[in-house]
Design brief:
The complex is a heterodimer of chains A (about 425) and B (about 450).
Chain A (H helix, E strand, L loop, with lengths): L1 H14 L2 E4 L5 E6 L5 E8 L13 H8 L11 H7 L3 E7 L4 E8 L3 H14 L4 H20 L2 H13 L13 H6 L2 H11 L5 E7 L3 H12 L22 E7 L5 E7 L7 H13 L5 H9 L3 E8 L7 E8 L5 H18 L3 H17 L4 H15 L8 H6 L3 H11 L6 E7 L6
Parallel strand pairs in A: 2-6, 7-11
Antiparallel strand pairs in A: 1-2, 3-5, 3-6, 4-5, 8-10, 8-11, 9-10
Helix pairs in contact in A: 1-13, 2-5, 4-9, 10-13, 10-16, 11-12, 12-16
Chain B lengths: L15 E4 L5 E6 L5 E8 L13 H9 L8 H10 L3 E6 L4 E8 L3 H13 L5 H17 L4 H14 L12 H5 L3 H11 L5 E7 L3 H10 L26 E5 L6 E8 L8 H12 L5 H8 L7 E7 L4 E9 L4 H18 L3 H18 L3 H13 L6 H10 L3 H11 L6 E6 L1 H8 L5 E4 L6
Helix pairs in contact in B: 1-7, 9-12, 9-15, 10-11, 11-15, 12-14
Classes of the chains: A alpha+beta (about 425), B alpha+beta (about 450).
Chain lengths: ~425, ~450
């Protein structure tokens, strides 16, 4: 009954989406709903840290900051000033695969938002002065997210183990030395290559009039020229031929362990099966790893499992925050026991049901706000080429069987394909 | 396009109100874009209400209630709840305890039955208690490696002192060591019950059916106090111009907080202060973001807010930077506060911030969870019933005179506490100019 109700709700939602493509290649998807007098306007650019190369790591993210520093019509500081004074706010995020700019605002501000967004896509200003200031801001952001964050520093080390050739090897925010060296010319080149309308998709959800919105979009974006085809991202990752390990020595209160296995790309049929496996192993108090390592064996304060969709093959990660004094080796052994149990005995029917229920709720919950709605539709489009693919998620999750989960685990979670980073606490000053 | 001269209306749901037979007030409303329902049970029991030397007992109790009932083991209970897809939070906050959950609407009856079992027939098992206590103590220690958590704890300790608002809701290692299972059971029986609670439900529901379900389930919950314990008043002691330095030498980024006297919930100046606080540090074009991030590149973040609690409040500004610019950061923040205090906002700033707050407000209450949280806050603190409906009008009504008076009277650059975390040995000489330094070791925070 619940699944039928969810499917019907998604079907109803998807019928509202209206889509068009402007002659310059800009794709537009509108989701009108007037429950509250606001809208979320999101521009998805098909560029992330996977499009970078050594020497300019972090440019996608640094460039995201530069997008808020003025364009031809609205000079430095004007973007947010104009938007906020009309009842809106904006922000952006960069991932491995995409860069997304969003503006949430009162319904009356729609034309202002379209004017602001189209202006920076058409004629961004990049000055040495603003670049220098943003560089310092980004270096502080990196210091917060990586250098002073245990999981952040471990994740950076782990990615460098999992990938030897693919750009997923470096952190989205980039290495400090590269951030310091990125030039204005690098930024201009990046803008010309990736920020053209034919590399963007707009999602607008909320209190909008569809026809009026299309008219405005045509008026403001219509004359922005298309850009050249994108340079391809080469996935030259060689096969892994054995376990890889690294250690971090840091004056922490307790040890930490992160283990990763390479997985498939988002479009692979195993992608959604790994979503299920993620829930079975590590989401919720009753999941296998939380129950065993946190509550029964009491070696970990927390355990989490991350399987994130990626355009190129991603990684399935288990992170363990151990109790002070616990042996990381012992915790690792206990972790592998649980993983082996799935490989050998599979999962129970009730575990599958629990995972599928929760995954379905996640899909539906994302549509409970206009921001979530535009974001979900946008991500589906970026990963699968069409937002409609996301509307099939409920039936796809429901079709996954216990055996498929076991076989999928056997394919990816092999002992010889582990990548392990251990953080060992040291005294201050000790190396 | 739609006119921009006046605010577009927000349609608010009709709220059905009644009291169950056991005295538990229930508020039910039909709303939301998707077939999910949110439940919020608010108990007037703040985390600071605890026997002397037993801080954290409330947090421990809420964790223990999830770990099994008289009929189900912890694993069985959690499996059932998680199979329903319930995202369950239970915990103690400064002025109340909250149980919140969101799940598919058809599971409402199942969830209410499980919640009732957890509240009426908890196992309160010794073994589970010991596990949770040890885990919480380990968590308190591990959290010292998180710079934002560390500075928040140091700030709370420094600002609120020995008032219950200064207690960490999770307690301290020292206090947790003093708590036994019987303490938790006694606390649960004496302090938690329907007569000091309220239940809120919003979603794709039929209010009549929901009320019947509530009577059948939580209507059977009978225990606890007749009235809530009152939070002791907070006696504001001028801080002088103190500097608190939490020693964490391996941090390569200094965290910074400024604390000064604020306002409690329901204060008459709340709207002028919301306007002043937002333009100082609550939006991207705020003065602090502009001065710290845009102009100087000192930090990724700078902001401020009014931390309003039932009997007192604080003004808090926060940021972080590299060790060599910690002094410059504090100077800039103090200077911006002082300028706004002395000169007030400009007319264009005032107009912009009011528009900003009004435009963003509908988004802040869009989810069922957020709407229920606002509604519960209104009732908990005795705010006007039409608070949500009138919010934007009240913001728009703030004029320049009120904004200037609010800035002048409530922003303070003296009698403030500055808190930094980082290498105290290296920072102390440079920060001494801001006032007498008190060094805080990690052992005082865990």
């Amino acid at each position: 009954m619940v699944r039928a109700r969810f499917s019907s709700a998604l079907k109803k939602l998807s019928k509202r989406v209206v889509e068009k493509t402007l002659p310059n290649g800009l794709k537009v998807r509108l989701y009108p709903d007037s429950t509250i007098p606001v809208f979320s306007y999101q521009t998805f650019f098909n560029v992330g840290s996977r499009n970078e190369r050594p020497g300019i790591t972090g440019i996608s993210h640094l460039f995201e900051h530069m997008m808020f520093n003025g364009s031809k019509k609205f000079g430095p500081g004007q973007f947010d000033k104009k938007l906020e004074s009309q009842g809106g706010h904006s922000n952006a995020y960069t991932s491995f695969d995409m860069t997304v700019y969003y503006d949430n605002a009162a319904s009356e501000a729609l034309e202002t938002v379209i004017d602001l967004e189209s202006d920076r896509m058409r004629s961004l200003l990049i000055t040495n002065k603003t670049l220098e200031t943003e560089r310092q801001v980004v270096l502080e952001e990196r210091s917060m997210r990586v250098d002073n964050d245990i999981m952040g520093m471990m994740d950076e080390e782990l990615s460098a183990l999992v990938w030897k050739a693919h750009p997923y090897r470096w952190p989205i925010i980039g290495y400090a030395g590269d951030i310091a060296a990125i030039s204005r010319e690098d930024c201009l080149d990046f803008f010309r290559t990736y920020y053209a309308p034919n590399n963007a998709t707009l999602f607008v959800a909320g209190d909008i009039d569809v026809e009026a919105t299309f008219r405005l979009l045509k008026k403001y974006y219509g004359k922005i020229p298309s850009g050249p085809p994108l340079p391809p991202v080469v996935d030259a990752e060689p096969p892994q031929r054995g376990e890889r390990r690294a250690e971090i020595h840091f004056p922490a209160q307790a040890p930490y362990v992160m283990v990763a296995w390479r997985g498939p790309q988002v479009t692979h049929e195993d992608n959604l099966v790994l979503d299920v496996l993620q829930f079975v192993l590590g989401v919720g108090h009753s999941s296998r790893l939380v129950r065993s390592l946190v509550f029964e064996k009491e070696v970990a304060v927390s355990v989490s499992v991350h399987w994130a969709w990626r355009i190129n093959p991603g990684s399935f990660v288990v992170a363990m925050e151990l109790r002070p004094g616990v042996s990381p080796k012992e915790a690792e052994r206990m972790l592998y026991e649980e993983v082996d149990s799935v490989l050998q005995n599979g999962i129970q029917k009730k575990e599958l049901e629990k995972a599928v229920n929760n995954l379905s709720i996640q899909v539906l919950e994302s549509f409970s706000t206009y921001q979530g709605c535009a974001q979900s539709l946008g991500c589906y489009e970026m990963y699968w080429g069409s937002w409609r693919e996301g509307m099939k998620l409920l039936s796809r999750y429901a079709a996954i069987g216990q055996q498929a989960v076991q076989e999928c685990a056997q394919r990816y979670l092999k002992a010889e394909l582990r990548n392990v980073v251990t953080l060992l606490p040291t005294e201050q000053g000790e190396i | 396009m739609k006119p921009s001269s006046k605010l577009l209306p927000i349609r608010l749901p009709a709220v059905e109100k009644l009291n169950l037979g056991n005295g538990l007030p229930v508020r039910v409303m039909k709303r939301g874009l998707v077939p999910l329902t949110s439940v919020r049970l608010v108990i007037r029991l703040g985390s600071g209400v605890c026997p002397p030397g037993k801080s954290g007992i409330g947090g421990l109790m809420w964790q223990l209630l999830r770990r099994g009932t008289k009929h189900k083991t912890a694993q069985e209970l959690m499996e059932l709840i998680e199979t329903l897809g319930v995202d369950l939070e239970m915990g103690a906050r400064a002025d109340c305890s909250v149980v919140s959950a969101a799940f598919p609407t058809p599971f409402l009856g199942d969830f209410l039955a499980l919640l009732t079992e957890m509240l009426c027939e908890p196992a309160l098992n010794e073994e589970e208690f010991e596990r949770l206590r040890k885990r919480t103590m380990a968590r308190l220690v591990n959290d010292l490696d998180d710079p934002a958590t560390l500075i928040s704890r140091a700030w709370a300790r420094g600002f609120w002192g020995t008032h219950p608002y200064g207690f960490n809701p999770s307690g301290s290692c020292k206090d947790l060591a003093n708590i036994c299972r019987q303490d938790v059971e006694e606390y649960y029986r004496r302090q938690v019950g329907p007569k000091i609670s309220r239940l809120y439900i919003a979603g794709d529901v039929s209010t009549k059916e929901v009320l019947a379900l509530c009577e059948k389930t939580l209507g059977t919950w009978v225990q606890g106090p007749e009235t809530p314990q009152q939070m002791p008043p907070f006696e504001w002691r001028p801080q002088g111009d103190g500097v608190l330095l939490a020693h964490k030498p391996e941090q390569t980024q200094v965290q910074f907080r400024l604390g000064a006297k604020g306002i409690p919930k329901g204060h008459p100046a709340v709207f002028p202060l919301a306007v002043v606080g937002t333009l100082l540090g609550g939006m991207f074009t705020s003065r602090l973001v502009n001065a710290v991030r845009v102009k100087r590149g000192l930090s990724y973040h700078a902001g401020c807010y009014w931390d309003q609690k039932a009997v007192a409040g604080a003004f808090v500004a926060s940021s972080f930077t590299k060790p060599e610019t910690a002094e410059a950061l504090a100077e800039v923040v103090l200077s911006e506060i002082e300028t706004l205090q002395k000169k007030g906002p400009t007319p264009s700033e005032l107009a912009a911030v009011k528009q900003y707050l009004c435009g963003c407000f509908p988004m802040a209450i869009q989810t069922n969870d957020a709407f229920l949280a606002s509604l519960a806050d209104i009732e908990l603190h005795g705010l006007p019933e039409n608070w949500i409906g009138q919010y934007r009008d009240n913001v728009l009504a703030v004029d320049m005179k009120q904004a200037r008076a609010a800035a002048r009277d409530y922003l303070a650059t003296d009698n403030r506490l500055l808190v930094f975390s980082g290498d105290a040995d290296a920072l102390a000489p440079r920060l001494a100019r801001f006032g007498p330094i008190r060094r805080m070791e990690l052992s005082e925070i865990s």
